[in-house]
Structures are given as C-alpha cells and as structure tokens.
Amino acid sequence: MGSISPRMSLLQEFLDRVWSAGEIDQCDRFLARQYTIRHDPGDPWDGRTLDLDRFKERVRISRAPFPDQKFDVQQWFENDQGIAVTWLWSATHRGDIPGFPASGRTITMSGATVYHFDADDRLTGHWQVTDRLGIYRQLQSHA
Known about the structure:
The chain is of the alpha+beta class. The protein has 4 helices and 6 strands.
C-alpha cells in the first residue's frame, strides 16, 4: 500500500482497536463529540448523528454477534475532504441475530467507507456501502 499519512495511521488504529479488537473505550481518542452516519443503507443508525456514548453503544451492539470481527484494509484514498477505504471483513457468527441463531461459522463481507475528519483530526462521520445482502445470504445458508 505504500506509505500512509498521519490521518491514515490514525484511521487504521481506530479500525484495529475499536472495531476489530473491541476496545470501545478508545473511541474517545478518535472521535469528535458528534459522529454522523451520512449514508449506510441497512445500518440501524443510518442518517443519525451520535454522541460518544451512542457511538460506543453502536459498536457494542454491532460487535456482539461477531466478537472476533476483523477489518482488513485493501486500499486507501485520501484528499482534503477525508479518507476512502476499501476493506474486507470477516468474523465468526458467535451470537444470535433475530432469525439467525449463532452458527459458529465464518462470515465475510466487503465494503467501502469514506471517513470525514474535523480540523483536530477527529472522526466526524462516514459514508459507506457494504454487501449486507451477502451477509444475509451467508447467515441464511447456515441457518
């Protein structure tokens, strides 16, 4: 991937520590006071602005069925507006989701996210597309 900028490094640490490792208390280091989910179809928080506590709750709820989830960044694209990231995600389905009891199987997904920052290099929100239909199909085939 070549060299990465300080913002890219910060974003990689955020993905690794908060989303992959589940270190939810680290959100305070990375996020602005408010975080807006500008576009994320299928995400229950789509279109909402969250304070730090609500964002932490979002991470907790999202990680619960997939506690070992991992984001593997494929590519970075950065400009003065933010950073676009393409990624692969994998996790073991260890917790129940309505209609889908825990299966113990590995689930995968891909996506692209554009992250926005404030002047202090704190994350202020994202615009995202993901393969949620692929997740549903994998869960359905394991049910």
